[in-house]
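Hey Z.,

So I finally got round to the guanosine-5'-diphosphate thing we talked about over coffee. Here's the setup:
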Amino acid sequence: RTSLIDSARIAAGGLKDFASGLATPTVRLGVTGLARAGKTVFITALVHALLNQTRLPLFDAQAQGRISRAYLEPQPDDDLPRFAYEDHLAALTAEDRRWPESTRRISQLRLTLDYTPQGFIARNFGRDRVHIDIVDYPGEWLLDLPLLGLSYQEWSAETLASSRVSPRLALARDWHSLLAALDPMKPADEQQAVKAAELFTSYLARGRGTDVSLSALPPGRFLMPGDLAGSPLLTFAPLDVTADASFPRGSLGALMARRYDSYVAKVVKPFFFGHFARLDRQIILVDALTALNAGADAMRDLQKALADVLAAFRQGANSWASALVGRRIDRIVFAAAKADLIHHTSHDRLEAILGLIVKDAAARAEYSGADIDIAALAAIRATREATLRQKGEDLPCIVGIPQRGETIGTETFDGETEAAIFPGDLPANPEEALRGGLEGALRFVKFRPPLTAGRSFPHIRLDRTLEFLLGDRFR
Ligand code: GDP
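And the result:
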């Protein structure tokens, strides 16, 4: 299903990268993750730490004082919006400090660093320069990769089948009852198409509700439309048909199939071939704590979503996508974000749980290729730690200012007062997390961002993560 046009587009993108690489080496760093995983906060913290020469002990180039200058430059791709770094930083550092606006669409930022390479000869021969092009995009969009290989009929049959098992079945009731009344072979009716798309979208959105917290719900743009909100490109939905159905001309099925094909051609392909395929490094932020708290179904669903995401990085010899997609990415970090919401004594356990999910996901995605690192990370640490004694027992707690309106038990916070919270223990055996039983056992509240008074943001393992992602480019 890949055409010559796609190859030409790749070649064009590749040439552009090559030409600009001749002047100054460039690393294209992809930052992704499902909604609210922490992409915006991560990029803002990373850029701030490099621009302000924050102490980063495990990021060698910075720790060794070899980065002499860091600055923002106009980004190379005119077709991408710029990542709104200044706005996000302003939100975090304003008097009423708050978390920035989350990622809704793809954006880009170019950070340029002047550095002295390691080693005797290099030191004597002066400076080098590297561009780091950071590309922020919704992880939901990666879930669309399989659509490139599925016909409308195949996609419909698969989507219907997965909506007929628990916990999705209960969420899909309204959409299913509409489907029962639609005849794909009868003449197309625009209102029916609109209604079907509406109910299908709200089924997907309900899967994202806090109770169920499903992760794997393509098409990606239905949940994260970016600039396509309200566009006719999104006015389609699966119908109850077999994978080999054929539709008469002018039928509802034919209309839906045509729109699906346009979505794949005009939305999915340009993203994968024009942007994703040109990344060199990738960090995937995962909100594992929310999934853990939601229970075993949510964990299994997260695992499935990560397998789908990893499939996009697959480099297997017989994968039709291998020649085009993701062939350059050679380092991937899976980061369990917001690790400051648990005590550090649970960080290893969080890493072990994410490691287990990723391992299974990698096996399912027949993944091979890039080096993978797993980290429990807090790009901006909003808490510190303390030990509380309660009923003769020492409880490892975290301390911070919960956002106004957050509650624990009967207590409601006012957004100004500090609180010590025992978030609960993660299981020592990561398998337990997949078996469930943790539902509601963890206590998380949203904290306000830390008060920095113009200094750098505190973090957990941002330096180690940067070293893994970029360290070799400064040697
Ligand atoms: P995005 O949708 O992936 O761009 O997610 P954001 O970066 O906007 O993060 C979503 C929310 O998660 C933020 O509004 C914060 O409440 C929270 N968050 C993100 N990163 C951190 C972190 O490092 N520590 C804490 N405590 N909260 C975080």
